[in-house]
Amino acid sequence: MKPGSCGPGVLGVHPVIFDELGEEVPKGSGKAGNICIRNPWPGSFLTVWGQPERYVETYYAKYCKNKDSKDWRDWPYFAGDGAVQAADGYFRILGRIDDVINVAGHRLGTKEIESASITVEEVAEAAAVPVIDELRGRIVEVYVALKPGYEPSKEIEHKVSDAIDREIGKIARPKNVWIVFDMPKTRSGKIMRRVIAAISNFADVGDTTTLANPEIVDNISHHVQSEKLARGEAPRELSEQEQKEIAAYGQAE
After folding, report:
1. Distance (Å, whole) CA 16 – CA 9
2. What are the respective helix, strand and coil percentages of the chain, to the nearest 5?
3. Whole-number average pLDDT of the chain
4. pTM score over 0.70
5. What does the DSSP 8-state code read for residue 9?
6. CB–CB of 159/146 below 8 Å?
């Protein structure tokens, strides 16, 4: 066993990591990419009920180089997760590619950032979101909710940033750490990251009727956006593609 990693594929399953151009990322390179399975395997599902085209488009089309091919070797399965492979063949899953923030060419798994944040004693929950940045492409902002009995402070914000530095590296250091009373959540308890990503980017938060606590959205918006404006962080106009990216953020979970 290797803590934080999963081993090479079991017998009959052949994982591979491809970059965005479809080139294989060699193990031990330290570079992250998208983990795929080269071949069909026992137990894989065969379609999406009533939507066979969606099944192909979602899981197989991205890395198929010949859409007319009937050869399974031309249709690697796209898992939708980012990963990196060590020299010993072990894979480390970085999280859903929808939830990977590309900062100056470095693909940062938001789950890793959030896991580092909750190593801080005072923090109960954390959510990392991307903010559009003209210089670095994307930057990270982290939202944290505290355990009962703790009050927001600059000291806690610094402790969260320092924990991310220590656990991941300075490239992952968030531009801002926002301490909030609660996170916007669905009734099942899932944090709605697209909502707080929209808040950080001064974008439309979209439909909040499915939230268990919709009243918290205005509270967070006022706190975060007024503080940003006071710091001189004026909102920038997002392109249509950027708006779609923010609206879809976290939807893979």
Report:
1. 9
2. 30, 25, 45
3. 88
4. no
5. P
6. no
User: Which distant-in-sequence residues (6+ apart) come within 8 Å of 34 by Cβ?
Assistant: 17, 18, 19, 20, 62, 78, 79, 80, 81, 82, 83, 97
* DSSP 8-state code for residue 247: H
In DSSP notation, 228-241 reads HHHTT----PPPHH
Q: Which domains does the chain have, with CATH numbers?
A: 15-89 (2.30.38.10), 99-248 (3.30.300.30)
Q: Find, among 36, 27, 76, the residue nearest to 56 by Cα.
A: 76
Question: How many angstroms separate the first and last alpha carbons of the chain?
Answer: 26
Using alpha carbons only, give the angle 205, 207, 209 rounded to the nearest 5 degrees.
125
DSSP characters over 136-198: TEEEEEEEEEEPTT----HHHHHHHHHHHHHHT-GGG--SEEEEES---BBTT--B-HHHHHH
CB 33 within 8 A of CB 17: yes
Q: Where residue 102 falls among pLDDT bands split at 50, 70, 90?
A: confident
pLDDT in tens, 74-83: 999 998 888 8
